[in-house]
Amino acid sequence: MQIKILGCGPSYGVPSLSRGYGDCEPSNPKNFRLRSSLLIREQGTNILIDSGPEVRLQLLSAGNPDLKAVLYTHEHYDHMGGADDLRADISEKTGDLPVYMAKTAVPHFKNMLEYLFQPNAHQKSIFDLHIVKPYQKFQIENLEILPIPQKHGESDSMGYRIGNVAYSTDVISMEEKGFEALKGIKVWILGVVTPIKNDKHINLDTALEWIDRIRPERVYLTHMGSRMDYDKLCATLPPHIRPAYDLMEIEV
Ligand SMILES: [Zn+2]
User: Fold this and answer.
1) Closest-CA residue to 51 (of 32, 67, 27, 63)
2) CATH number, domain containing residue 29
3) How far is ligand 1, taken at its centre, from the CA of residue 159, in Å?
């Protein structure tokens, strides 16, 4: 399995319009972060996780792969806001595009693309909606996917375990069952916005506790904000925990 980090930035990106690079060194290109998104490739099957507002540029940078499906972690703009870009050519290339999300995310998706989903829409939706349920495995081609429910402040998000890999971002807490479901993963891509405690995302200390609990072979941090300088993190984190960077490739 190959994983490409299409973006490892927070909701406002790095640099952001309000804070610029913040504590991140601007001369290091690894600190330039688009909104968080991930491409998984296994034997010719490409699965995208999340389509934020920069998804078009991200997919072009990844060679514009034919997508078999899109998994959504949750409905926030930085994860779903670019969905309309996916439909531009896909209906001609591969037919309807299956999109997977929790039931709670569906109304947001449909509202966002209201002009496609209204009863007399002129434009056809190419999205084939599938609802994922907590801990209920499903299959896309030869990939088995396990949705793991998460709390994300007042709202919910979904993490995904795909074989030996898990993607858990925009998470502040999860059930004991969620930690059980993560046992045995080799690679964990984990969202940590900031070292500072906040009410929507785990901070770095909590991430280290969780990593110690799950003990994956390798961890890549994503969804990193402007307090997370790449080189400083590399210098302080244990070698099996690395900050991701945009277009990073991970072999599993
Ligand atoms: Zn986010």
Assistant:
1) 67
2) 3.60.15.10
3) 12
